[in-house]
Amino acid sequence: MEKRTALVDEHLLTMQSMEEIGTDDFFYTRLKARMEREQPEQGWSFPLKPVWIVGTLVLLLAVNGFMLSQQFKTTDTKSATNSTSPLQNFASSYDQTISSSY
Amino acid sequence: MRQYFTNLNEKELIQQLRQGNEPAFRWLVENYRNRVFHTVLNILQDSKEAEDAAQETFIQVFESVKSFKEESSISTWIYRIATRKALDKIRRRKTRQKLHKLLPWWMPEEKKSNEGSFHHPGILAENKEKAAVLFRAIESLPEKQKLAFTLIKVQGMNYEEACAIMQQNIKAVESLISRAKLNLQRELEQYYNALK
Predict the structure, then answer these.
(1) Chain A residues inside the 8 Å CB shell of B63
(2) C-beta neighbour count of B37 within 10 angstroms
(3) Which chain A residues contact residue B59 at CB under 8 A?
(4) Contacts of B133 in chain A (CB under 8 A)
(5) Quick one: average pLDDT of B139-165?
(6) What is the mean pLDDT of chain B?
(7) Looking at CB atoms within 10 Å, which of A12, B27, B42, B163 has the fewest?
(8) What single string gives the DSSP state of each residue in chain A?
(9) Which residues have a Cβ under 8 Å from the Cβ of A20 and sit 6 or more positions away?
(10) What is the pLDDT of residues B40-52, one digit of tens each?
(11) Are B53 and B81 in contact (CB under 8 A)?
(12) Can you say whether residue A46 is alpha, beta or left, with left for phi > 0 and alpha for psi between -120 and 50 degrees?
């Protein structure tokens, strides 16, 4: 293994003298400022996470689908009860039905 | 005040943190900020992103100390959060780079960040070039190999500590290191052959 990775070992020698690099003394001040900035708002706001947005859209679509299916059902039953032909319906709406007054 | 927190044992410190004691949190940040920054800098190879990841680490510590189960030491827990934050940033960076390849006109600043090699500020001037070549090769490693190799070989952490941070057993970490070394050897050979 040692010979197979000789190039890596040679390069790793450069890391032996590596100093620990830290942040400057104002790190805590910047951190505190960021924490205050990112504090969640007290009031309610619409959740903008994609999961909530997609969930809301799916729910709306489901409600829409349900409403449409309900509407089709009612029109079907209506048309079943009104057994008059479309032509008669049309004529009656314009008061063109034949009626005798003898 | 600093002396007061230095004299506290870990349980007492955690208790103070859970109560939202700001001086205790400040002491924790001051005590760990350099080590956390150094760790995430080695993983991310970018000072700006490292500062961001270090800040996110301490924010996470502050927010989740109440749910800290004390199954490991607080330092291991902090390092674990820090390495996760760094790996998250690498994943996001890779996604951005993929997007940039697909849509080069979008996010032009991404091109700048991909160019050039990383010169670690803590490495002696005469070693900087060689170290930069190694850092470039480390960038190409798979996530787990990269993390294990960086913590143990670059940062000089002992195996026990690295295993605790990575939540892996020693055999798994040893295997990651040996695979990482073979991959790096291949990468370095390719790099020097291309220069010839």
Answers:
(1) none
(2) 24
(3) 31, 34-35, 38
(4) 11
(5) 95
(6) 90
(7) A12
(8) -TTTTHHHHHHHGGGTTPPPP---TTHHHHHHHHHHHTPPPSS-----SHHHHHHHHHHHHHHHHHHHHHHHHHHHHHHHH--S-HHHHHHHHTT-------
(9) B34, B35, B38, B122
(10) 999 999 999 999 9
(11) no
(12) beta
User: Which of A19, A27, A29 to substitute to test the interface with B, most B CBs within 10 Å?
Assistant: A27
Spatial neighbors of B62 by CB under 8 A, at least 6 apart, are: A35, B17, B25
To test the contact with chain A by mutation, choose from B31, B43, B55 the residue with the greatest count of A C-beta atoms within 10 A, namely B55
Q: How confident is the model at residue B10 (pLDDT cuts 50, 70, 90)?
A: confident
Closest CA relative to residue B47, chosen from B113, B96, B107, B97: B113
Q: Please list, in sequence order, all residues whose beta carbon lies within 8 angstroms of the beta carbon of residue B35, skipping any fewer than 6 positions away.
A: A20, A22, B79
Say yes or no for a CB contact (<8 Å) between B130 and A38. Answer: no
Tokens of residue B81, six digits: 């959060």
In the numeric block, which tokens belong to residue A14? 């450069």
Nearest to B188 among A11, A22, A23 (CB): A11
- If you search the block for the tokens 């070394």, which residue do you land on? B181
Contact across the interface for A11 and B134, Cβ inside 8 Å: yes
Residues of B in contact with A21 (CB under 8 A): 34, 37-38, 41, 120-122
- Token output for B128: 């900087």
CB A12 within 8 A of CB B134: yes
